[in-house]
Specification:
It catalyses: ATP + protein L-histidine = ADP + protein N-phospho-L-histidine. It contains 24 helices and 27 strands. The chain is an alpha/beta fold.
């Protein structure tokens, strides 16, 4: 395995697999395009405006003059000017524009000709005017994808920097020409050695910043027409090149897909960005790849040697993840280490080593079953045991033999397990040290709700860390563990009441388990869910308080009024007397009505029917019309958009809920104001819903009171209006029982908006 690891490391990976990983790493590390790199695109729109390609060179001169006046940092014209334009002075105009700019770079193209590879250079006038020349070649890997470039290429003894490198150099020059004897070649090729080979130096991978279209791209015609102000190009790198179909050269890159390609000018923009940001992706040296693969394989072999099969599998997966993480981390540090060979090696190690382990295990199992078969009592042997494994292969026979032995042992435990699972409460069986030995079905289900580690027995600390256990559960500051697992002689069962992370209330009981001689065997701990019981008790207390206080207050007021009326000196006028009694009676009836409706909303018997929401809202508004009219308040209903939205609801309860919201809005709104009831459909991936907003212009609700207004017997306003806070509790109960939601937004002094969302069955 180690020799194979060295060989794969020497081969520097697995080719296409590593290229796939590399491309995805490039996509995962995309970054924002720099603001100082701009592409002026010769696109379809520009061709449609200026005419068919190629254009007159005075057009390019005009564009270059604009960039010169704008003081662009450097200009790279990715356009081949190898042939003169006859019958025109355009060449002179363009040469003058290039010379005036002082930081213009022109491309060099190496082409295959009948006499061998030859450079295609700009015209001499352009070469003399340009700041420098740069080659525009990319390197293609086996899959035809452009991942790298040579920063320097040499042919016939003449070398040129890469085009983007030349642009970068021009930006940092003082404007003087960078053309030397190393990058000037004669136009006369008769004396040139045609057998010369194109040589590349400084192979570098391109640090792509993003997918095609990632860089700021401006249409050529927009610059000429003045649509883009010249100041936009000040102190920027400008690349001019073709992107239009038919004239642009496009290439597959790591950041493109099968249905798109990247133009050469945009690839040069990525290269230039890497130079500006001082980014480069360096491939690892051969010895680094060998060491990386060899070390990964050695760790996988050591894991199989010293860990269990499951542990070795886990460590193998961990190593694969670690290799991936290291590869990603190294890539972020601009070092590319091909990881596929290392991952392949650790994946191969595990099954090979497991096969060797299986051979040893089978031999051991055969010996052990022979011993077990001699010592097992006859009463635990089944008549059909040998028939089960008679017609099977060697491995199945060994496994079947051990299964028989295990079944005999499990039969002895089954009675205990069945009784433990039949207990109605979550029950744990603990050792003297608090280690969990067994737990029943209810406990297992409860552990799942606590999100404990699946597939592993949870620890006692892990279980009780999910409870709001007091640190001191005894009067003398006893710790919860000591209180539950008391080992002092004479102690009996212990009870602790607490809550878990889901706010469920539990009574935890712990009782010692002893052997026949009285010595400690362990502990039996039961977790009794008393949430429903405690909620019922609190509900009963709230109801009693409601009946004893809130229902009695208006009745007491009536009795007081009657006593005052009997005394002529304190008696009210008959109309005022009757009005006061009427108000108290109405208060009592409203309280009783709210209480009955809340009880109905909490019941399980809803009468569901399909109905449209607009009719529900209209009926609720009609019911509240008289109340609103008495306060000169106008109710505006806008539900046209939900006329075709049907809900499956209890019609009377939903109307009552909407009426409660309208009633509250009327109570808290000033006279002459307006209440807006609007409803709109909401379509999401999970289905359709109706969203209803009821907006008033009242005094609003303070932030501190918003959590209280939906709780029974609690109100945000205890002074201005009667009631015990059952109305909004009823609304919340009805909405949630119909699988909806209710929210409130409010600004103190401006008003409140209650928003109800209910699911639709149609619409």
């Amino acid at each position: 395995m180690l020799l194979l690891a060295i060989l794969l490391g020497y081969e520097n990976g697995l080719g296409q697999a590593d290229r796939f990983i590399y491309d995805n790493l490039v996509k995962a590390t995309q970054r924002p395009a720099p603001s100082d790199v701009v592409i002026i695109a010769i696109d379809e729109f520009s061709i449609a405006s200026l005419g068919r390609w190629p254009w007159q060179r005075r057009t390019h001169a005009e564009l270059l003059d604009i960039l010169t006046k704008a003081k662009a940092k450097a200009v790279g014209m990715d356009i081949i000017f190898a042939e003169p334009q006859y019958l025109s002075d355009d060449d002179a105009l363009l040469a003058s524009a290039i010379a005036n700019n002082k930081r213009t770079v022109l491309p060099v193209l190496i082409e295959r000709t009948p006499i061998g590879l030859q450079p295609t250079l700009p015209l001499p006038a352009f070469r003399q005017a340009a700041n420098s020349l740069g080659h525009i070649h990319f390197t293609f890997e086996a899959d035809g994808v452009v991942r790298g470039i040579y920063l320097q290429e040499k042919l016939h003894g003449v070398s040129w920097p890469q085009f983007a490198q030349a642009v970068f150099n021009a930006a940092h020059s003082d404007g003087t020409r960078n053309l030397t004897g190393d990058n000037i070649v004669s136009d006369d090729y008769r004396d040139i050695d045609v057998n010369s080979i194109l040589q590349g130096d400084h192979l570098a991978r391109i640090p792509y910043a993003g997918r095609p279209g990632h860089f700021k791209t401006i249409s050529y015609i927009d610059v000429l027409s003045g649509k883009i102000p010249p100041s936009f190009f000040t102190d920027k790198y400008v690349l001019i090149g073709a992107t239009a179909a038919g004239i642009a050269s496009t290439f597959a890159t790591p950041v493109t897909t099968d249905h798109e390609a990247m133009s050469g000018v945009e690839i040069n923009a990525n290269i230039l960005t890497g130079l500006i940001e001082d980014r480069s992706i360096s491939p690892a040296a051969r010895w680094q790849t060998i060491l990386f693969t060899l070390l990964s394989t050695s760790l996988a072999l050591l894991a199989c040697r010293y860990f269990s099969p499951f542990g070795a599998l886990g460590l193998t997966l961990f190593l694969a993840s670690l290799i991936s993480a290291l590869t990603y981390g190294a890539f972020l540090e601009e070092l590319w280490i091909p990881p596929s060979a290392a991952i392949l090696m650790i994946v191969i190690v595990y099954p090979l080593w497991s096969w060797r382990r299986l051979e040893a295990a089978l031999a051991y199992l055969s010996e052990e079953f022979a011993r077990l078969n001699q010592t097992t009592p006859m009463v635990l042997r089944h008549a059909n045991e040998t028939v089960r494994i008679k017609n099977s292969d060697y491995l199945d026979r060994q496994i079947g033999a051990i299964r028989i032995a295990a079944n005999r042992s499990r039969d002895m435990h089954q009675f205990v397990i069945d009784n433990l699972n039949s207990m109605p409460d979550a029950t744990l069986v603990l050792s003297q040290t608090g280690e969990i030995l067994m737990y029943n079905r209810i406990a297992r289900e409860y552990f799942a709700t606590l999100n404990l580690d699946k597939g592993q027995t949870p620890t006692l600390e892990a279980i009780f860390s999910k409870f709001d256990m007091l640190q001191d559960v005894g009067s003398n500051g006893t710790d919860w563990r000591v209180a539950l697992l008391h080992s002092t002689p004479g102690n009996t069962a212990v009870e602790i009441e607490t809550r878990d992370i889901n706010k469920r209330e539990f009574l935890i009981k712990s009782a010692p388990s002893r052997m026949t001689d009285g010595s400690m065997l362990g502990w039996i701990v039961s977790l009794i869910d008393v949430t429903t019981l405690r909620a019922a008790e609190r509900r009963r207390e709230e109801s009693l308080n409601f009946i004893s206080h809130d229902m009695r207050v208006p009745q007491s007021s009536i009795l007081a009024l009657i006593q005052l009326q009997r005394n002529p000196s304190t008696a009210f006028a008959i109309p005022e007397f009757l009005s006061r009694i009427e108000k108290s009676v109405e208060t009592t009836l409203n309280l009783a009505d709210d209480f009955v409706h809340l009880a109905k909303a909490e019941s399980q018997s809803y009468q569901l029917q399909d109905t449209d929401f607009s009719s529900l809202l209209a009926e609720a508004a009609d019911d509240m019309w008289a109340f609103a009219h008495s306060k000169s308040i106008n109710i505006v209903v806008d539900a046209q958009e939900v006329e075709n939205c049907w809900l499956n609801v209890d019609r009377s309860l939903v109307i009552r809920a909407l009426g409660n919201l309208l009633s509250n809005a009327i109570k808290f709104s000033p006279k002459g104001s307006e209440i807006i009831c609007s409803a709109k459909p909401l379509h999401t991936e999970t289905g359709s819903s109706v969203v209803c907003n009821i907006t008033d212009h009242g005094k609003g609700i303070a932030d501190a009171d918003r959590n209280a207004i939906f709780s029974p017997f609690l109100r945000a306003d205890e002074q201005d209006h009667d009631g015990v806070g059952l109305g909004l509790a009823f609304v919340k109960m009805v909405v949630e029982r119909h699988h909806g939601s209710i929210e409130v937004s409010s600004i103190v002094g401006l008003g409140s908006t209650f928003t109800i969302t209910l699911p639709c069955v149609i619409g």
